[in-house]
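Summary of Year 1 activities. Much of the first year was spent building the evaluation harness for sequence design. The harness presents a backbone, in tokenized form, and records the residue chosen at every position. We chose the following record to illustrate the format because it has been used consistently in internal testing since the harness was completed.
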């Protein structure tokens, strides 16, 4: 009975590891480009089949897109030489990639303009907590901060594609909601409350004008 129990536990551990591995391994450059094109252009057909080959199966806990963006990069690097600026951006990318791998956060994909995408390989609560830790770690290690937009967790590819769009929209709201923080997709109650509070002074000023 003990042998059978240990055997069952081993099988379960292997299954969980395989499932977790599907969104924590390194992607090739070609795979990264295919994913970014799919997320940004909603590509169909052959590309979508490649995407399925790369992403499936999704973890049983689901996955979500998070987009990480440095805050005020142009302003904070205005006094740097071009070489210094490139070195800072390269160092930030290495730092975020290493954090993602060390914490088994998920799949790391460098995007354009010093943006970075992470596809969650952890359950939602832990994923969010680890991203909070990343914000703190960047703030402590670099002369800049990052803001992270997160979409809804998804259990199929089509909703995961939408999760990326939600993360983009959440990130674009940082000018209203504040930087150096996590911003969830707009339908999240906490985001709606914060957005309403941020908009109220603006509306008051417009009414008084």
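For this record, the design step produced the sequence shown next.
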């Amino acid at each position: 009975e003990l042998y059978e129990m240990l055997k069952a536990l081993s099988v379960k551990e292997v299954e969980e590891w395989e499932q977790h591995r599907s969104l924590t391994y390194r992607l090739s450059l070609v795979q990264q480009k295919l994913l970014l094109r799919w997320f940004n252009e909603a590509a169909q057909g052959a590309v979508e089949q490649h995407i399925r080959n790369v992403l499936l199966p999704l973890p049983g806990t689901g996955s979500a897109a998070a987009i990480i963006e440095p805050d005020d990069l142009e302003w904070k690097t205005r006094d740097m030489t071009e070489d210094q600026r490139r070195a800072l951006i390269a160092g930030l990318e290495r730092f975020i990639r290493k954090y993602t791998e060390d914490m088994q956060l998920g799949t790391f994909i460098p995007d354009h303009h010093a943006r970075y995408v992470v596809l969650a390989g952890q359950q939602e609560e832990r994923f969010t907590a680890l991203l909070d830790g990343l914000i703190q770690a960047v703030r402590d290690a670099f002369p800049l901060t990052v803001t992270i937009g997160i979409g809804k967790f998804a259990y199929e590819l089509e909703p995961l594609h939408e999760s990326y769009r939600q993360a983009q929209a959440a990130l674009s709201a940082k000018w209203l909601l504040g930087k150096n923080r996590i911003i969830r997709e707009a339908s999240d109650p906490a985001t709606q409350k914060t957005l309403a509070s941020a908009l109220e002074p603006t509306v008051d000023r417009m009414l008084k004008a």
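The chain has nine helices and five strands. Quantitative recovery figures across the full test set are reported in Table 2.
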